[in-house]
Amino acid sequence: MGLDDELTDPQCAALSLASHFAYGAAMGEIYRFATGRALPRGALSGMLFGMGVWSGSYLGLLPAFNILPPATRHPERLDDSGAPRVGRVARSTYSPFGKVPVMRQLLSRTAALATLAGGFYLARRALRPKSHYSFCNRTVLITGGARGLGLELARRLVDQGARVAICARTTDDIDRAVAELHERGGAVLGIACDMAEQEQVRSFVQTVHRMWGPIDVLINNAGIIQVGPLAAMTVEDFEQAMRVHFWGPLHAVHSVLPLMRDDQQGRIVNISSIGGKISVPHLLPYCASKFALVGFSQGLRSELQRKGIYVTTVCPGLMRTGSPRNALFKGEHRAEYAWFSIGGSLPGLTISSSSAAEQILEACRRGDAELVPGTAARAAVLLHGLIPGVSAALLSLTKQLLPKAQDSSTETYRGFESFSEWSPSVLTELTERAAAANNELGEGPVASVHDPDRATR
Questions:
Q1: Number of domains in the chain
Q2: Which residues, in sequence order, are CB contacts of 281 under 8 Å at separation 6+?
Q3: Do 87 and 52 belong to one domain?
Q4: What is the pLDDT of residues 178-211, one digit of tens each?
Q5: Count of CB atoms within 10 A of residue 443's CB?
Q6: Catalytic residue positions?
């Protein structure tokens, strides 16, 4: 049979489906290369996608987009110029098969798509770690590891056989976290450390190195949350956020990098926020500093990847960690706490700290460039990237719904000082459960409750 010979019905159908399966496989590899995440069920999803395109083009739904038109075309489906008609056609005007010389077209198209899929597959393999990374017997340092997300990460790492060193500002938080982690049977070290102070960070890293050797994985998780209108924020608020979210991770990276370079291996995870992708009203110091962390983290990856050190930037959406109790609130602090804690408890829009921790460790293991945990967060980032004007308009509308600054007071209150009839309530039940589970309750109010440096996650 020559390339231009007519095909039998079964041959035409088989070649048509093969070309569309190749199309689906190519699209799946491009998606995985671009996002670092495989499609659910991998190759099967790609083939089903190709089958869907084939069916859609055959039904006349896709030719307008010129997406791999169907392999068989009946004269009844062509217009006067010979182009395929757009839109549905009566069932009597077409059949699933036909006899037209399409072998050359199908073979060339299938080969091109298979080559494209293979190229993206090889490129992805070349840019990814060569082996599956295990945390067993690794030394992992987690900043802000005594509460919230950091504690969830520490639990999983201990369960996987890692040696885990955590730090936080308060010894009470550390003591409770270390006691819990010891009960899980892990090797755990907890040290009080202010991540904004370079000497304390260097001392912390050196202590871990003396006890357990080089640090294999650094997870920069420590953070603060400052909530309130811009009118209530001061320059000091922005400086404080930058010290914790940017300078802290920078100090930690500088402390662990020499030994990672010597070993030609390592993992660094910088946990930013969706606020480092989209600036949210009433969170300006937080968002500005998280944007800085994202920029640093992305550039750091390009600098270090060829040295065997993989940097992962994590930008979670709203998480149920229980952290609102220890966040900082300004302006109408009770109203600010109410919307912040309720918003952080909504099912569907939020992700549990447990699920986020699992995704983060898997991304670290694979050496992914970036992770945005949470379906709602990924949708928001996509919307902002595609139509930033619409996204900005929606955020501006949201600002109109938030509490207004009633005076020029810049006094800071902790979350547990800002309770009202709205929060805690049934609307914040999920956040309250997370606070109890993730060491966010502490021992209750302390003497220096207005000290903003105490509100570290």
A1: 2
A2: 229, 395, 396, 398, 399, 402
A3: yes
A4: 999 999 988 999 999 999 899 999 999 999 999 9
A5: 9
A6: 286
